[in-house]
């Protein structure tokens, strides 16, 4: 592969030296990595030269938390809190698993949307009940390999019965409905760890940009033995332990109901809070929780859009930052967000925290949000030595944006334009590991038109079948609604309302 030289560009490196301050210069790419950044760089005679005039070069965005399992449910649901929404997006009464071709197309669709909108790295908390299957997991890896994206991919696990992971559920749900929920014998910690080791052996490091990560779904959904075994293996393999904690009002009371303490304190007691721990959401955390998280140097994937759509609340991002918690940005799944665009999350995060109180010095600023969307997301994925900033030696995961578009005209402050004005439409080129994967809005490694045509042909039948599952699972709606109501009533006494605790 010849060298690539981007000459006379505006560079936004997001490194420790320059941060979000742009400067003019050149960037040289060699063997998929950035080999030099500076002015008047020399290149080999056969180097590919890209004219960077009126162009911004910045790191690719990192989606710190998403679920490819939801990609066919875009635009399907609204007006439902998480516990009710889960009934329909992840039915308790399951049907046949999606076939492998649809599984491939579903993953590919997520990768396509991500790349075209500037996301070069995704953390896919892939959930594929009722079993863990290396062949199906490899299908997801194959889709990401073909698209050209960088990804951490899990095979998310839970081994506590759903009704035993929800406060009040056994009390509220009629016995005849409880009897419908026979999921068979739960997976043991040893069995899951054995599966994970097989995934590491066969898939981890694939194509030089695809990794396996460990994902116990949530502390209340997993046995202590499973959580501890997952954390030990995550530390051993230097990958994230990716989990969901304190997303909703129901989860805010769950720890106290089941364990007599918050779910963060419970994780701490199990020894499962560390630099490897990445927590999706973290909305209903207390000051004590935040202090523990900061001391552990764990990460939070801030899902600013999906938290609003599901009515979860606003995460206390300023307090998390002050405590030393690493913050990345996530879209969550396409069903609870409806896009895979991190630019949407950046804008939302730049707006919602301004309602946190009158002390505007503590609002979240554009440069901080850019850091979350790039190097912060990379840190949350434990990929900060590979991606997230433009630095010599790192992978050439980058975006080239046209600075002459409406979104940058007139040009004032690039960081603020990126957070509050840009939506991805100014992107001209996307590179992952030095490979051009998007040029002028067109995928370069796959035939996007044929993929979309096949999805339009095959998916309607799948959605029709899913509609029947929704009808079957509606029998649990009133139970989940009552759980949500009781938890909402109780949580006011445990925490300030999340909208008032957002700073």
UniProtKB/TrEMBL annotation:
Domain of life (superkingdom): Bacteria
UniProt similarity note: Belongs to the metallo-dependent hydrolases superfamily. ATZ/TRZ family.
Location of the Amidohydrolase-related domain: 56-437
InterPro entries reported in the protein's UniProt record: Amidohydro-rel, Metal-dep_hydrolase_composite, Metal_Hydrolase, MTA/SAH_deaminase
Keyword Manganese carried by entry: no
Protein's name according to its UniProt entry: Amidohydrolase
Gene3D superfamilies: Metal-dependent hydrolases, Urease, subunit C, domain 1
GO MF term list: hydrolase activity, acting on carbon-nitrogen (but not peptide) bonds
Protein's organism: Pseudaminobacter soli (ex Li et al. 2025)
One Pfam family hit: Amidohydro_1
This protein's UniProt keywords: Hydrolase
Keyword Calcium annotated: no
């Amino acid at each position: 592969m010849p060298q690539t030289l981007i000459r006379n560009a505006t560079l936004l490196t997001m490194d420790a030296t320059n941060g979000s301050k742009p400067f003019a210069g050149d960037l040289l790419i060699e063997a998929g990595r950035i080999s030099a950044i500076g002015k008047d760089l020399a290149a080999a005679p056969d180097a590919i030269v890209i004219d960077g005039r009126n162009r911004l070069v910045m790191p690719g965005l990192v989606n710190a938390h998403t679920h490819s399992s939801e990609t066919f449910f875009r635009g399907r649901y609204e007006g439902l809190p998480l516990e009710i929404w889960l009934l329909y997006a992840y039915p308790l009464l399951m049907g046949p698993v999606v076939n492998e071709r649809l599984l491939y197309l579903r993953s590919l669709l997520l990768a396509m949307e991500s790349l075209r909108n500037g996301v070069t790295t995704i953390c896919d908390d892939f959930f594929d009940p009722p079993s863990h299957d290396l062949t199906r997991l490899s299908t997801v890896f194959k889709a990401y390999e073909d698209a050209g994206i960088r990804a951490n991919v899990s095979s998310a696990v839970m081994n506590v019965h759903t009704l035993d992971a929800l406060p009040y559920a056994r009390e509220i749900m009629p016995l005849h409905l409880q009897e419908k929920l026979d999921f068979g014998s739960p997976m043991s910690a040893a069995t899951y760890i054995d599966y994970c080791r097989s995934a590491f052996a066969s898939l981890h490091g694939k194509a030089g940009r695809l990794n396996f990560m460990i994902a116990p779904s949530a502390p209340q959904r997993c046995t202590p033995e499973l959580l501890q075994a997952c954390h030990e293996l995550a530390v051993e393999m230097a990958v994230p332990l990716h989990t969901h904690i304190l997303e909703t009002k129901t989860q805010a009371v769950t720890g106290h109901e089941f364990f007599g303490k918050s779910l963060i304190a419970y994780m701490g007691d199990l020894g499962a809070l560390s630099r490897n721990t990445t927590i999706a959401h973290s909305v209903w955390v207390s000051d004590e929780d935040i202090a523990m998280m900061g001391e552990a140097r764990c990460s939070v994937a801030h899902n600013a859009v999906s938290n609003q759509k599901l009515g979860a609340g606003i995460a206390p991002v300023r307090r998390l930052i002050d405590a030393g918690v690493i913050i990345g940005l996530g879209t969550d799944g396409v069903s609870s967000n409806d896009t895979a665009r991190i630019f949407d999350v950046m804008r939302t995060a730049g707006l919602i925290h301004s309602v946190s109180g009158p002390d505007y010095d503590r609002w979240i600023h554009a440069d901080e949000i850019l850091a979350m969307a790039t190097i912060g997301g990379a840190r949350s994925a434990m990929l900060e030595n590979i991606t997230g900033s433009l630095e010599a030696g790192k992978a050439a995961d980058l975006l080239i944006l046209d600075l002459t578009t409406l979104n940058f005209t007139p040009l004032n402050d690039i960081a603020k334009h990126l957070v509050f004005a840009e939506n991805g439409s100014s992107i001209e080129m996307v590179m992952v590991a030095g490979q051009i994967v998007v040029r002028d809005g067109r995928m370069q490694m796959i035939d996007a038109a044929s993929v979309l045509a096949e999805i339009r042909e095959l998916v309607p039948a799948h959605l029709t079948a899913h509609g029947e599952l929704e009808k079957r699972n509606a029998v649990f709606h009133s139970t989940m609604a009552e759980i949500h109501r009781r938890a909402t009533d109780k949580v006011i006494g445990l925490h300030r309302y999340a909208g008032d605790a957002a700073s």
